[in-house]
Each structure stands twice: as structure tokens, then as C-alpha cells.
Amino acid sequence: MGTVVAGDKRGRQLGFPTANLRLHHELSPPRGVYACMIKINGGNALLAGAVNLGIRPSFDNAEPSIEVHLIDFHRDLYDKTLEVFFLEKLRDERKFDGVDDLRRQITLDISSAKLVCEQFISSKS
Questions:
Q1: Does this model's pTM top 0.90?
Q2: What is the pLDDT of the chain when averaged over all its residues?
Q3: Residue 23: pLDDT band by 50, 70, 90 thresholds?
Q4: If we measure between CA atoms, which residue out of 66, 70, 63 comes closest to residue 24?
Q5: DSSP state, 79?
Q6: Would you give the distance in Å from CA 103 to the centre of its chain?
Q7: CA–CA distance, 56 with 59 (Å, rounded to integer)
Q8: How far is CA 58 from its chain centroid?
């Protein structure tokens, strides 16, 4: 669980806006990209997403971050509290040769996350 804070807006520039989280003293799983479900401000709705945990090596960052992309969601999340439920690890974090390679991989990650989330939702019906 964390509060959405301003980031570098790189996800938005790549075409995949993310909510950067400042954790509320929670633990996080190992670095990588995960399929997840998200609740906003303690609401009941579960939204599909993909989350990256790590240091964003393609941008030479040393500070760990948690960036959540809510699939098919286009509203402002600043200062909202997100509760992230990790469903499945999709891949390890890695450095990409360029922005185009990163953008292609993010597209694949989001497609994979969407499938995992759809399976999770259908298993609960």
C-alpha cells in the first residue's frame, strides 16, 4: 500500500503512464515486473495492472521505485492511496538497449498482465 507521488513522468512519455508509490511501511517482493490488481483509496473495485519494482536500469537510476500502470485507466491518481495485490511475476528487471526496445517490452508486459488479471477475475466468478 502506498500513496501516489510525482515521479519523472517517463512512463507517460513512453505512452504508459504510471503511478509512483511511496510505501506505507509495507514490504515488497523482489525486483521485477508483476501482474497485479489494484484498489484505490480502499474502494471495493479491483482494477487490472502491471507493476515494476526496481531501479529502472535503462535510465541508470540507483533509487528503487514502485511504478504501477493501471490497464485502461485514465484518471488522475495523485495523492490517492493504492493497494497493490501481486498476482504473478512476469519477468525480472533488466536494462534495455533503447527506448523502442523498452516500449515493445512494456507493451508485451501489459498484455501478459491483462491476461493474468482476466484469469484471476474469472476464477473468482
A1: no
A2: 90
A3: confident
A4: 66
A5: T
A6: 14
A7: 6
A8: 16
